[in-house]
Amino acid sequence: MTESLEDTTLSIVFNQLQDVVITQKKFMDSLCSEDERREHEKTKALLESHLDKLQYALGEIEILTTQLTREKKLFESSFGRISERVKKESSKSQQLETKCTTIKAEKEKQEEILAFKDSKISELKKRLASQKENHQRHLEEVNIQMEQEAYISRNLATKQGQGRGRTQRNSSLR
């Protein structure tokens, strides 16, 4: 009987221990479950916070994407206009350079013509000065010759006048 009492006591103690273990386990499970629930709520709150931030960031990205698209279109439009203006200016510049080159060539041609005409004028001035000198000498020679002829004429007239006066004197003396 003692054995049976021991067995019974042992069985009761075992059952009580088992009940305590089960209760402890349930308590631990409930604590773990409570911790898990709290952690889950924290994680859920954190997730919601991050989702809000993500939604805000996505909204900002969408706004910035829209702005970027609009600015890209404006840039492309401005770039197109500027590019077109540059092409026109480049074309004008090229036309002006061509015109300038043509004008320079014409100017050089005119300068050559003027230089040729200047040399001709200088040559003609020299010829004119030479002819003027020759004409001046010729006039001086003609003046000298006229003076000589006048002198000779006067002398001849004087000699002839003296010669007649002698002849007349000679005839009156006879």
UniProtKB/TrEMBL annotation:
Keyword Acyltransferase: no
Location of region: Disordered: 155-174
Coiled-coil stretches noted in the UniProt entry, renumbered to this chain: 93-145
Keyword Coiled coil appears in the UniProt entry: yes
Domain of life where this protein originates: Eukaryota
Matching Pfam families: SPATA24
Record keywords, A-Z: Coiled coil
Name the record gives this protein: Spermatogenesis-associated protein 24
